[in-house]
């Protein structure tokens, strides 16, 4: 009896499962285990002897990696680790080192050709995605290359300085990095430095996979997923995919606040604290870039951030805690270019908020003059807080020609001058963002002329710095996309305000700005439209002696222009295609307003709906939580005001 049971059990177990001593489901054709592991199942009726199954993790390590008990890439003729260290790589068997691991990706991903030609972008400036082949995750060699490119060329950009190189490499060696972060780093490293169409399409695949991973785990936010989402949004901005990125910025801010990045972390190491701090400020700079001074589009307000400014780069790189920390509103010397970029970005956000109030005719003439003088003082105070070595001069610019921090230096001073342009251009009558004519007439003519002359002065400074950058004689580093917008705005303002600028000088500045836009658009196709707009603007100004028509007021901008929604032609909000389906909300024609009036008459009503009776409610009876401790782990922490954070409703200015 026992022997018959053993025979029956043996008939229901394939040879592979019996050899591996695992339970077999007995499914004919191919059992579940063999199907999952892609083994040749004995139930297929194959007569060849299978023998023992192949090892799931066959030894392909070289002798050096095997002796050190570290992971070996298995590449031939030498593994990645031996290549990096310049050592001889020896494999113990001929088969080892000839085949890459199953999940590894070859250096050049194979994808199908897209439906549109290479290098062609659509009308919105976004890259064609086309039909993509099956995605394969990057192998270790490609990841190492992406990390090297990122920290060499992209980390110096102000909005990307939130990753620590040594820590990330250490976690990568321990396989302790979320794949979504590695994919987003790979994608942004390709998009900002590589113009090869094949690699750029692979980068778009990486964006999609990283985005899927972050979206799937929205209920479990983490630092790495937040970093990955920030890079995904930056990637979408490069390729011109603004609509989804617009909504993801709000998601990014929510993730940051849920992780309490806006508060100092107690008990953590300096590297952890500084990484959180830099990530929070990077999110803030991204959010202010999208919001453009509109409070209803602001998802990461500066008032909600209670952490100091980032420290100097050498302190962060070498894990050296600085002797003092500087706050955003401090009067102390600004600790480095990154902190300076954040401070000037904050001031520009305040300037845009103020000028939009002026354009909405929400201030008296005296209030406008007082507000402009106050912001002027803040800009001058910020400049005085900079170290002497960070002040602008052509000599300081040339000294940084081969420095990795050239982009931060140029960004700081270009944005400082752009802040003045944004402040004064609201007093230029020919511009759409100008304050109403009735208010302009009440201002002092001397004050208006002074502001317009200052606007022309700072616009020329922007064009002059861009020209100096092109004349350095060195290959320019990766530059922020915002510089292309400032280049366009500087020429636009010079056309409308620079009365003493010669035509030859204006054309020279325009050529420099056009060349800068072209350089940035090589890796950021979304910028190409800005170059076309600049050429049209120059052509328009040359064809007529009067001030050319203002391109800022046309197209999409005109439909969105309300007293509080005066946006730049290249503003990211205006380039996010959002369909207004308000007309689809009412009921069909059978339930029109006329039918409602007829219903009221038949019901004996005089056309007005009855109002609800009022109830006497104690002021505290409607409060659902009196003690404020709504989230476990947050009670008792100093500085946290839950009610204030919940009431950031964007109501007015």
Automatic annotation (TrEMBL):
Keywords: DNA-binding, Metal-binding, Nucleus, Transcription, Transcription regulation. The lineage of its organism: Eukaryota, Fungi, Dikarya, Ascomycota, Pezizomycotina. GO terms for biological process: DNA-templated transcription; positive regulation of metabolic process. The keyword tRNA processing does not apply. PROSITE patterns: ZN2_CY6_FUNGAL_1, ZN2_CY6_FUNGAL_2. GO terms for cellular component: nucleus. This is Zn(2)-C6 fungal-type domain-containing protein. Its main location: nucleus. It is found in: Nucleus. The keyword Transcription regulation applies. One of its GO terms (molecular function) is DNA-binding transcription factor activity, RNA polymerase II-specific. It comes from the Eukaryota. Residues 588-607 are annotated as: Disordered. Residues 13-43, 61-91 form the Zn(2)-C6 fungal-type domain. Gene3D superfamilies: Zn(2)-C6 fungal-type DNA-binding domain. It holds the Pfam family Fungal_trans.
């Amino acid at each position: 009896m026992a022997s018959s049971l053993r025979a029956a059990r043996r008939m229901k177990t394939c040879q592979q499962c019996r050899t591996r001593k695992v339970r077999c489901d007995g499914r004919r054709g191919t059992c579940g285990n063999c199907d999952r592991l892609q083994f040749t199942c004995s139930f297929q009726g194959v007569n060849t002897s299978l023998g023992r199954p192949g090892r799931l993790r066959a030894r392909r390590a070289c002798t050096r990696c095997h002796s050190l008990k570290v992971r070996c890439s298995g590449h031939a003729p030498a593994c990645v680790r031996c290549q990096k260290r310049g050592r001889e790589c020896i494999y113990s068997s001929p088969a080892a080192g000839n085949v890459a691991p199953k999940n590894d990706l070859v250096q050049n991903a194979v994808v199908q050709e897209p439906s549109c030609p290479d290098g062609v972008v659509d009308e919105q400036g976004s890259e064609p995605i086309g039909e993509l082949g099956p995605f394969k995750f990057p192998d270790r060699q490609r990841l190492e290359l992406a990390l090297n490119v990122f920290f060499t060329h992209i980390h110096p950009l102000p909005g990307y300085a939130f990753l620590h190189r040594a820590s990330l490499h250490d976690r990568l060696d321990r396989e302790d990095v979320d794949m979504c972060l590695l994919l987003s780093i790979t994608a942004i490293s390709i998009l900002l430095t590589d113009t090869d169409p094949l690699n750029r399409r692979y980068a778009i695949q990486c964006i999609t996979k990283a985005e899927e991973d972050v979206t799937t785990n929205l209920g479990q936010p983490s630092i790495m997923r937040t970093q990955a989402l920030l890079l995904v949004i930056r990637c979408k901005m490069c390729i011109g995919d603004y609509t989804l990125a617009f909504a993801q910025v709000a998601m990014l801010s929510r993730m940051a606040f849920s992780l309490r990045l806006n508060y100092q972390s107690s008990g953590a190491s300096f590297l952890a604290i500084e990484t959180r701090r830099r990530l929070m400020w990077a999110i803030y700079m991204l959010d202010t870039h999208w919001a453009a001074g509109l409070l209803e589009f602001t998802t990461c307000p500066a008032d909600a951030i209670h952490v100091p400014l980032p420290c100097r780069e050498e302190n962060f790189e070498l894990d050296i805690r600085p002797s003092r920390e500087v706050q955003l509103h401090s009067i102390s010397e600004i600790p480095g270019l990154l902190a300076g970029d954040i401070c000037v970005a904050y001031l520009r956000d305040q300037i845009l908020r103020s000028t939009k109030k002026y354009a909405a005719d929400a201030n008296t003439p005296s209030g406008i003059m007082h507000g402009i003088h106050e912001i002027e003082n803040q800009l001058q105070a910020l400049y005085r807080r900079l170290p002497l070595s960070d002040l602008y001069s052509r000599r300081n610019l040339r000294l940084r020609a081969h420095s990795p921090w050239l982009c931060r230096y140029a960004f700081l001073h270009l944005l400082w001058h752009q802040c003045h342009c944004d402040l004064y251009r609201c007093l230029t009558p020919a511009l759409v963002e100008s304050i109403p004519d009735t208010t302009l007439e009440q201002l002092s003519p001397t004050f208006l002329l002074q502001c317009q002359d200052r606007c022309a002065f700072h616009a020329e400074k922007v064009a002059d710095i861009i020209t100096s950058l092109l004349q350095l004689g060195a290959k320019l580093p990766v530059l922020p996309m915002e510089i292309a917008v400032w280049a366009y705005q500087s020429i636009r303002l010079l056309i409308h305000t620079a009365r003493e600028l010669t035509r030859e000088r204006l054309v020279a500045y325009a050529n420099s700005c056009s060349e800068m836009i072209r350089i940035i658009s090589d890796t950021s196709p979304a910028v190409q439209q800005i170059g076309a707009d600049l050429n049209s603007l120059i052509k328009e100004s040359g064809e007529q002696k009067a001030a050319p028509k203002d391109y800022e007021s046309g197209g999409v901008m005109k439909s969105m222009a309300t007293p509080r929604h005066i946006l730049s032609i290249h503003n990211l909000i205006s380039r996010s295609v959002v369909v207004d389906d308000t007309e689809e909300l009412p009921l069909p024609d059978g339930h029109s307003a006329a039918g409602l009036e007829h219903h009221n008459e038949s019901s004996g009503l005089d056309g007005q709906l009855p109002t609800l009776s009022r109830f006497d409610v104690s002021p505290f009876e409607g409060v659902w939580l009196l003690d404020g401790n709504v989230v476990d782990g947050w009670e008792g922490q100093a500085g946290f005001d839950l009610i204030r954070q919940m009431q950031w409703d964007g109501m007015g200015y």
